């Protein structure tokens, strides 16, 4: 790789306004970002500063009302909804605060099912699901259902599900918010290991100051813009 790392995300003047007329709320007011690939990145900012709104735009779950956004060199703002869905399905993984697992399926079935609906060929699906569960340290418990797993193990399952198709970018919105601080730290260390070992890019949002020590870079959002980068 060249000295200048390639970008996984580039945003320029990114805006997201909700509502119309007198009820209009400008949440993102021109976000400029250049996120190098293969790093662990955190967005921080007070509640309501727009972190989730920004993550949703980066993941193509929502469309900006202004500005431009590229993912892995691809202009996301120029794509149709269907094309954006396809990019997300094949090249991104999403992790949420609430884990969002299917309660009647085992950890393995949760991972395998997502591979199936995202079009992964049947050949190799079992291996891909098992490898992802192994990467998150859950292979020994993969036949348990979510209610038999701890919160940390449930979040590991959700992470396995998000990385099984080998995405380039993993987006995690407050992935540790439902966990105690020690378990949350283990989850962040898992993201750290995934970035180091597989070269995936991870962007997460957090309020937890302990996490800031572990990530490569922190971007702080304030009043709809990135105000600090370190
Ligand atoms: N669909 C929507 N319609 C109107 N306002 C919205 C919508 N989505 C978000 N907002 C507003 O945008 C602002 C930013 O919300 P967002 O969830 O992005 O913040 P956040 O930084 O993730 O907050 P938290 O840390 O509490 O999760 C909030 O004031 C919220 O009310």
UniProtKB/TrEMBL annotation:
Tell me the ranges covered by the ABC transporter domain, including all copies: 9-230
Molecular function GO labels: ATP binding; ATP hydrolysis activity; transmembrane transporter activity
Pfam families for the chain: ABC_tran (PF00005)
- Which InterPro entries does its entry note? AAA+_ATPase, ABC_transporter-like_ATP-bd, ABC_transpr_LolD-like, MacB-like_ATP-bd, P-loop_NTPase
The family database entries (CDD domains) matched by this protein are listed as:
ABC_MJ0796_LolCDE_FtsE (cd03255)
For this entry, the protein name equals ABC transporter ATP-binding protein
State the superkingdom. Answer: Bacteria
Q: Which Gene3D superfamilies match?
A: P-loop containing nucleotide triphosphate hydrolases
Q: Which UniProt keywords apply?
A: ATP-binding, Nucleotide-binding, Transport
One GO CC term on file = membrane protein complex
KW GTP-binding (keyword) present: no
